[in-house]
Amino acid sequence: MSDDEQLTYADAGVDIEASEAATAALVGAVGDIDESEYAGLLDIGDRYLALATDGVGTKLLVAEALGDYSTVGIDCIAMNVNDLVASGVEPVAFVDYLAVDEPDEGFSEQVGEGLSAGAETAGVALVGGETAVMPEVIEGLDLAGACAGLAPKDAVFPGEAAVGDAIVGFPSSGIHSNGLTLAREAATREHDYDDPFPLDPDRTVGEVLLEPTRIYAYLLEHLREREVHAAAHVTGGGWTNLSRMGERRYEIDDPFDAQPVFEFVADAGGVDDEEMHRTFNMGTGFVVALPEADAESLAAETDGRVIGEVREGDVVAIRGLEL
Fold it and tell me: In the predicted model, what is the mean pLDDT of residues 6-25?
């Protein structure tokens, strides 16, 4: 592919449709699992025990290139905690899994510092983990984890947005920890990670890509005070994640501005608007569907704002696109 060709996520190495098909095959073999749910719920009597698992992904390759692993632990915590919050569950404990080709005290310490910082922000306890040395399986390192949470049975969100609901959005901190395969391919067409970031020369390209994922655990107390119907963590799949709140038309007319990193990726990779919105959060990292009266007060109490509404249909409409 020449540098002037438009880049897609599939071109970069991640075919979302193939990934979804593989996931469906796995789920089908395992049994009755609802893929739309962000966390698995186990009935333990008067409440639910919830579990979520996720990793940092190829953002680790940016950290490796820069020799800076200080924030990837935050990403690992965030990707798991935010999924629990999207279900209405309070995160309480986290375990990590670090797989390496060879042990290294330097990056292990940095990873640990990030995990500690993320856990403090999320209000979860780090209750252990595993470091596996597997030179024939792993090249470099991989970092993933699992988070446990608890929720009273009446606190879990129903998971279905209602027609007429308002949609409240909350800003992201940047690219978060998904879509990095595409972002890295675009960024390195004409730049190195240690080059000045063109839209903010005080930072490097790598530093901007490593901006850690925002943790939305602070929202839970505000959400539980209201009649939240559904929530979505805007991660892999970008804005199509809203469809996990049910088969509706999600009309987004006032999203948060996309941070400069998204403009950079789009320009550097020739990535079109639809592909950007199907891959990245584009400035909004978490959304909630709830009655309009509750939406206004939620936005007033937090850093969120009403960004749209739920209508009849089956599409996400944003910035002139229908996803």
Answer: 56
For 13, counting Cβ atoms within 10 Å of its Cβ (0-12 exposed, 13-18 middle, 19+ buried), the class is exposed
CA-based nearest residue to 242, from 131, 134, 320, 167: 167
The values of phi and psi at residue 263, to 5°, are -60, -40
Q: How far apart are CA 183 and CA 25, in angstroms?
A: 28
Q: Are 41 and 48 in contact (CB under 8 A)?
A: yes
Q: In Å, what is the CA distance from 55 to each residue of 40, 142, 189, 211?
A: 16, 8, 26, 16
C-beta separation of 153 from 48 below 8 A: yes
Q: What is the mean predicted confidence (pLDDT) over 286-314?
A: 97
> Quick one: which H or E segment has residue 60?
helix 59-66
98 touches 69 (CB < 8 A): no
Please report, as a single letter, which amino acid is at residue 159.
Answer: G
pTM of the model: 0.88
Q: Which helix (H) or strand (E) holds 26?
A: helix 16-30
Quick one: which of 269, 197, 301 has its CA closest to 7? 269
